[in-house]
Design goal:
Distance between the termini: 29 Å
Number of strands: 6
Order of helices and strands: EEEHEEEH
Strand content: 25-35%
Number of helices: 2
Structural class: alpha+beta
Strand order of the largest sheet: 1-2-3-4-5-6
Helix content: 10-25%
């Protein structure tokens, strides 16, 4: 398991409320952590919470990216990561077991997106300071 807490974040344990797709009410909630590794793009980790009764972070990823990018004035090259804990509310059997980190790639058209699974080593490398090259 990868430990996000071992990396300093600009926001830590921020609970973010957003509107559910089907109700339009702000009844969905996730955890947001923003990292700014030196010499690298910012990294935003959006975590599904077991207590979320609204739209999952997976199904709301486009809305979350747009809202968070505006609210925190994040640059266009920000890396967006969807995070599911082992205790997440969605059954993980279709995708494997345990904690997961996936880079969210929005492909320019509404509803067109893909995810790229990150190993714990690649997740750690995203958060480590770079040399600025």
């Amino acid at each position: 398991m990868f430990d996000l807490d071992g990396h300093p974040a600009l926001t830590d344990n921020l609970r973010y409320r957003y509107a559910s797709t089907w109700s339009g009410k702000a009844d969905a909630v996730c955890q947001v952590r923003i990292f700014a590794p030196a010499g690298k793009p910012s990294v935003v980790v959006v975590s599904e919470l077991a207590e979320n009764t609204g739209t999952s972070v997976t199904n709301a990823c486009e809305r979350l990216v747009a809202e968070l990018q505006k609210a925190f004035e994040l640059p266009a090259d920000t890396v967006w990561v969807e995070h599911w804990r082992e205790d997440g509310r969605m059954p993980r059997s279709a995708w494997g077991t345990g904690e997961s980190f996936d880079v969210i790639e929005l492909l320019g058209l509404p509803g067109v997106r893909r995810w790229r699974r990150l190993s714990p080593e690649k997740m750690a490398a995203l958060l480590e300071a770079g040399d600025g090259d």
